[in-house]
Amino acid sequence: MAGPNNGIVLYHYSFSPFARRVLWYLSLRGMDYAECKQPPVMPRPDLSVLGVKYRRIPVMSIGRDVYCDSRIILRKLEELFPEGALGASSPEEKAIEKFLEIWNIEAGLFTRASQLIPTSMPLLNDPKFTKDREEYSGRPWSKEYIAENRPEAVAAIRSGFKLLETTLLADGRKWVLKTEKPTLADIEAIWTFDWLNGLKGALPRELISDKGYPKVFAWIARFNNVLKAAKAQAPKPASLKGDAAAERILNASFVDKDLGVDPADPLGLQPGTEVEVFPIDLGTQHHDQGRLVGLTEDEVVLSTQAKGKEVRLHFPRTGFRIKAVTGGAKSKL
């Protein structure tokens, strides 16, 4: 891929669980990339300058293509950098990998995990943080609300530990797909559990520990050991300020293929239609608008403008709504 650091700029902040999925992937592959650190709360002017309204982290650009949502980021890293990819090869393994992604994200396992944030966490004393997260999630972030929902969340997460202990890891395998090294399937399976394990006070250790789930906790420790070694060997990411990141992106070329607009898509949208795209689970108030240039079973692509240059925003279909814009401002190309 042309350009410095493989043409990759990753927008993230250090304690984002979703960003860690991508950071792990890059480290395990030893990939060179640049990063642009973001504040954990809105606003994020570094992304606004690219015309991005989407508020979730991470966001990754590869050239002048901008990918919103960790699921599509990982998929594109697999597609655009196939040599040394971490994804499964056989149809059966691909199904396991995909179902683990769905289990953690779309089926709500991580949502339950987020309800185990300890009420002693200093950020919960910051009104700016709690207000931002209430706007993002559409639910209260008071300590009282968190405490009230904790028992149900513990039950759901304990069930998740049991599932891994008694199924995928039950035969003593080192990695989910019985590989020599961790793969994308391990990342898809482990990130929620690893995050909770490292968040002091999140897990009730009298119920969830290596005594009750020895295989899961051994797997987490094994993964972190491999990850630590991989990070030590991987190139150190270049750190970019927002203006330098934007300049690099806007002066780059497009790297992704032209998907076209599926004429048989159930939405019945035509190429060039002005549309808006927004998530329907979290961060729903932040809508990106642009000209529709790509629509498949898995992906939607918008053409937008930033500083007089075209930028293409890519989103997954699952969890996002696509609506034609009637009236109002149009994207000028």
UniProtKB/TrEMBL annotation:
Please name the taxonomic classification of the source. Eukaryota, Fungi, Dikarya, Ascomycota, Pezizomycotina
Q: Which GO terms describe its cellular component?
A: cytoplasm
PANTHER family to which the protein is assigned, alphabetical: GLUTATHIONE S-TRANSFERASE OMEGA, PTHR43968
The family database entries (Pfam families) matched by this protein are listed as: DUF7962, GST_N_3
Q: Which InterPro entries match?
A: DUF7962, Glutathione-S-Trfase_C-like, Glutathione-S-Trfase_C_sf, Glutathione_S-Trfase_N, GST_Omega/HSP26, Thioredoxin-like_sf
- Give start and end of each GST C-terminal domain: 90-244
Q: Where is the GST N-terminal domain?
A: 6-85
Identification of the protein by name: GST N-terminal domain-containing protein
